[in-house]
Amino acid sequence: MELIFNLTKDYTTLKETPINTETSKEQYSVEKLRTVPILTEHGICYMTNSMFTIHLNAFDMIHGIYKPNYSIEEKNVLVKSAFFDDDVGFLSSNMPGSVNVHIHGFGEVMNPVKSHGFQSQITKTYSFGSIELVSENGLKEGSSVRQRNCRYPQENNLEYYPVYTETLCLQECRLKLVHRLCDCIPHFYPKSLKKDGLKRKICSYNELKDCFKDPGRVDYVVYLVDRRTTENTVSCGCTKICENALLYVIPRVGDVTQSSTAFGFGNNLILYLVEHPIIRYKRQIIFTFSDLLVNIGATVGFFMGLNFLGIIEIFYFFTFRLFFKCIKR
Questions:
Q1: Are the beta carbons of 151 and 299 closer than 8 angstroms?
Q2: 133, 245 in Cβ contact below 8 A?
Q3: Coil, helix or strand for 247?
Q4: Beta strand 240-241 pairing with 258-259
Q5: For labelling, which of 57, 78, 141, 301 has a CA lying 20 to 30 Å from the CA of 201?
């Protein structure tokens, strides 16, 4: 994979890059977006307007470099919009060759199973809406992963990725499944970030070819379930992320495929946020440990005429006080 990366031109490092990604909130307000090549199960792809553009860049992933000083909140500037803003649009222009488009929220990465592809020399428009997933202040510190059934990116338990998302967890699960089936891993997976991690062999072309002769095995690895029987399911233990935006494509009559001559040569991608989020799911702590103590005390007081302080006094008289009286005698 290192050889492929060195032979692939990184347009984002050029001063006059032919690939431009812009966003507009108003009719005449345009700003550039940070676009970074990342390592995915489709190879090297470009990702923009994400929390993880710095953490998942292809160079670091291929060479197994981990930079813990990167702060997710401070280093990644996201383009945001409010409900009363005008239409928000994204334009990526002059992309060479055929393009696979993956639309996902700011707190996730591309899912290889879900893609919107189109051919070369066209301009494609997608309209999409969003549903917000948020959490209340103090949820991370006041609860465990098991209690809230979700993870924050900083609560990373992955071996091959520096941050946690559900999709990255599933990718690592597929990596380990391929290693179990083939005794090696494909070249497009990153190196382990753990110094004492298991050194897995990289598969050669012939090894992968022999391992995946059966098309059903390929399907089994991609979807993590044998869809022919729906019984042999891989348990990955991947939980949802606590905060994200769920994006969905909205088919519209006006979203047509056009010639790319209007924006220059190459492929052009236009994204429009036509439906601002009107649905928000919020995670919050409803019942804490303090609430449990209060309920126990109230129940005991109602049925037995005791309170929590009375229980402590009874325990004190029959333990410490009795012990010290016996010593004095």
A1: no
A2: yes
A3: strand
A4: unpaired
A5: 57
Residue pointed to by tokens 């900083």: 154
And the tokens for 76? 């990644």
Please give the average per-residue pLDDT across 232-253, as a whole number: 84
Strands 122-135 and 267-275: parallel
Q: Which residue has the higher pLDDT, 33 or 15?
A: 33
User: Tokens 């769920």, residue?
Assistant: 246
CA–CA gap between residue 266 and residue 99 (Å, rounded)? 10
CA distances in angstroms from 47 to 36, 38, 124, 130, 143, listed in the order given: 6, 7, 18, 18, 32
Paired residues of 30 in beta bridges: 24
Phi, psi dihedral angles at 275 (to 5 degrees) = -125, 105
Distance separating alpha carbons of residues 319 and 110, to the nearest angstrom = 61
| CB contact set of 102 (below 8 Å; sequence gap of 6+) | 45, 110, 111, 114, 115, 116
CB 102 within 8 A of CB 85: no
Residue 326: CB atoms within 10 Å: 8
Which comes out higher in pLDDT, residue 194 or 241?
241
Predicted TM-score (pTM) of the model is 0.78
For the record, the structure tokens of 252 come out as 């519209």
Asked whether 117 and 100 are in contact (CB, 8 A), the reply is yes
Among candidate residues 292, 65, 245, 86, the one with its CA nearest the CA of residue 160: 65
Kindly list the domain boundaries of the chain, sorted by start residue.
Answer: 2-283, 289-328
